[in-house]
Amino acid sequence: MPDEAVSFRKTAHVWTVEIDRCPTGDQGGFVRLSSEIADACERIAWDEHARAVVLAFSGDLVSFVEEDPACLAAQGGVSPLVESIAALKVPVIAAIKGDGVGFGLELAMACDIRIGATGAHFGLPAVRKRAMPSAGGTQRLPRLGGSARPWR
After folding, report:
1. What is the pLDDT of residues 56-93, one digit of tens each?
2. What is Dmax (Cα atoms) for the chain?
3. Which end of the chain is more exposed for a tag (fewer CB within 10 A), N or C?
């Protein structure tokens, strides 16, 4: 289907899931993206021969997350979308093609391995806006980064 935001394919024992574009400009963009990622994750979960997943995306996925708050609330926020990735039983590799900011970073942190493009920057800009990251960023970031050491 030409208007799909997510494409997925299997080569040998490796699934490649690619978020081709960020759905913007309509109220249903987030719902469509969530549905397509959930469909891909369900297919992978049922595949007995799957050994790994490569999740490729442009790191800047902030725009669709900031769409209509009522739409996000109706879908339970972005957390279920990220949790569907985190719940996969096979290793998931995030291939981040740009800066991993906001939801892009939270999606990457749900993966087992993260590979960023050369010169990529990562961050949670929601904190500057006095908002909470909504997909587990406040829990995953300290676990992945560890606690700070005192500077001497």
Report:
1. 987 666 554 554 454 445 445 556 778 888 889 999 99
2. 57
3. C
Question: 136 lies in which domain range?
Answer: 6-145
Distance CA 10, CA 84 (A): 18
Joined together, the tokens standing for residue 25 give: 């400009």
> Is 151 part of a structural domain of the chain?
no
Q: Which of 70, 63, 83 is nearest to 137 (CA)?
A: 83
The number of folded domains in the chain is 1
Mean residue pLDDT across the chain = 75
Which DSSP letter does residue 112 get? S
- CA distance linking residue 30 with residue 76, whole number of Å: 11
| Sheet strands (E) in 20-101 | 52-57, 92-96, 100-101
Q: Are 102 and 126 in contact (CB under 8 A)?
A: yes
